[in-house]
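pinned: reference chain
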Amino acid sequence: MTIQRQYSLPNFRLVLEGFPEDPAAAAQGLAPVMSNLVNVECYVAGLEQPLRGGMDFLNSLVMAVSKYAQAFLSGVPSSEPDINATGGVSLEKIAPDRHRLVVKPTDENTGTAGALMQVELTTPQLFDLVEAVDQFLADAGTLPQMRLQLQPVSRKYSPSASNGGEDGANGGGGFWVRCGSDRVFLDAAAGNQAPYRTCTPEYQ
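pinned: its C-alpha cells
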C-alpha cells in the first residue's frame, strides 16, 4: 500500500507518493514514515498538467530550487556550475519578476530523455515552490534519508560587494522588496519569507 504526502501553497503543490518504511505502523494508528519514493508531481498554478518524475527528478528539483533561492535571496550568484542543467532541473532569472524552470525529463529505468519542458514562474510562484520544498525537507516522516547541504555563498561574487551599495549595508545577503507604499529589506538569514510573496523585488 502506498502513502501520499502533500505540501500545498497557493501557487504550488508538491505531491510525493511512496511506500512506508513499516507497513504495520498505519494499522497500529501510527503515522508511517515514507522511505521509498514512487512518484513526484509538481502542480504549478496556471499549468494544466503537473510536472512528474521519480527520485532523480526530486533530487534535482530540490538542489536546483535551493541553490537558486539562496542566490536570489542573498543577491549573490552561485559560483558553482549548475550540474542539474544537464540532467534534470534548472532555474534562471529572465526578468526582474520572472523565473524560468527548465525540466529535462529522463526515464529513470531506460535513461531515455523526454521532451524539454519550460515553465515561466512569477516571483510569488517561485516563493511558493521554495516554501513547498522547505516543508518537505523539514518533514522527518518523508524520505528522512534526504538531507540538503548547501555551502554559504561568498560575498565577493556580489555586484554590491565592490560598490558599497545598500544591499550590502548590513554586511549580509538580502534584497529589497516593494510592498505597496512600503519598502522592506529581506535578509537571507531571516528565515521564512512567505509573508512577502506578494511583494515586488527590486534589483540593482
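why pinned: The longest helix spans residues 55-74. Residues 156-173 have pLDDT under 50 and may be disordered.
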